[in-house]
Amino acid sequence: MSRFTPLDPRNLFKALESANPSDTLPSTKTLLDAVRFNEAGLLPAIAQQFDSGEVLMMAWMNREALEETLATQRVCYYSRSRQKLWRKGETSGQQQQLKTATLDCDGDTLLLQVDQTGPACHTGRRSCFYVSLSNEHATITSEPLIDPATLYGKK
Question: Phosphoribosyl-AMP cyclohydrolase domain spans which residues (predicted)?
């Protein structure tokens, strides 16, 4: 057992605060047991383009989606509206290949470094973050790369 494996998994991320890159950490299974999924069993996951740093989207993962993503290196989310796993690009072809997955210090948010094929957003835009807000006005910061009707085969 690692010095970072407390008897109570809820304390694991607190114990990791003193960890260094050279330390031996608990297994991924042990870490996933300590992840703080919300009351619906979900974890927010932020997808970022690995080479540019561009934030592409935020979606939700349950443990099954996270385990599948780690095993296949193809990003899989959990669709709250459809109540099922959502393999990014299964309809649009705009897939995300996982480069790295990193948990935050509290174990309640995931950062995915990905290689995104085409647009990440269902609107056909590269990023889902295209509505810019100021104190008095909002602006659209990008145009769709692909018409959503074309992207999802709707004519």
Answer: 57-130
Total tally of structural domains belonging to the chain: 2
Which CATH number covers residue 106? 3.10.20.810
| Structural element, H or E, at residue 151 | helix 148-151
Ligand-binding annotation for 147, yes or no, is: no
- The answer to whether the annotation marks 106 as part of a ligand binding site is yes
Q: Does the annotation list 121 as a binding residue?
A: yes
Is 76 annotated for ligand binding?
no
- Check whether residue 112 and residue 84 sit in a common domain: yes
Print the domain residue range for 12.
Answer: 1-34
pTM: 0.89
- From first to last of its 155 residues, the chain has per-residue pLDDT tens of 566 665 567 788 988 998 999 998 888 999 999 999 999 999 999 999 999 999 999 999 999 999 999 999 999 999 999 999 999 988 888 999 999 999 999 999 999 999 999 999 999 999 999 999 999 999 999 999 999 888 777 64
104 is in an annotated binding site: yes
Q: Please give the span between the terminal C-alpha atoms of the chain, in angstroms, as a whole number.
A: 57
